[in-house]
Each structure stands twice: as C-alpha cells, then as structure tokens.
Amino acid sequence: MSTFTLGGDDRAFGGTGNDRFFLLGGNNVVTGGEGEDQFWIANAEIPESAHTITDFDLEDDLLNIEGLGVGSFNELTLSNEDGNALIAFDNNELATLLGVNADSLTADNFGVLS
C-alpha cells in the first residue's frame, strides 16, 4: 500500500494498488487509480477549501474523517452540485467527488468517522 500526504493545493495520482491519501490544508486534487483506496478528507482540522477526488469508486474506495467530532454518517451533509457529490460537516465543505451522485453514498463508503 502506498501512502501519500498532501499539504494543500497539491495533486496526486495513485497507481494500480491500494493507496492511502492524507489530504491536509485544502484544495488538493487526487486520482486514486485502481485498487481499494482510502481518502482521509479531514484530519483534526477543517480543510481551507474542499478537496477534489476525481475517481471515487463506490464499491472499492473509502472516505475517512478523523478528529472533527463526527459521531456518525448522519451528521454529514451530502449534496449534489453540477453532477458531483459534495460532502460537508458543520457547514464546512470537506470534499467533492467528481461524477458521484450524493444519493449513492452510504455509511459503508466511510471508514473512520471521529
């Protein structure tokens, strides 16, 4: 498993394996590639601006939020904007999933919520 840490306004492309992406700062753009990828869209701080995930796979990939006090999936706000899913918590945008319908996201698409 490859691990990527992005600091803000960065771009990353995963490979064919299972990758982990820790998205810090804000406005990172990530393509996970093939495999079962994990995207940490918030890590103890609200991003300065929403991250963008270009190829989130509803069947294989996971989103993780840690250190914000998210107690459950139901505390997240999911909406559709221009054909993309927007994920927010406490009126703060965390990530945009390109080409994903927000109505398709379930608790199973999230690993760590805290």
UniProtKB/TrEMBL annotation:
Native organism is Crocosphaera watsonii WH 8501
**Which InterPro entries does this chain map to?**
Hemolysn_Ca-bd (IPR001343), Serralysin-like_metalloprot_C (IPR011049)
Q: Which GO terms describe its molecular function?
A: calcium ion binding
Q: Which domain of life is it from?
A: Bacteria
Q: What is this protein called?
A: Hemolysin-type calcium-binding region
One Pfam annotation reads HemolysinCabind
Q: What is the lineage of its organism?
A: Bacteria, Bacillati, Cyanobacteriota, Cyanophyceae, Oscillatoriophycideae
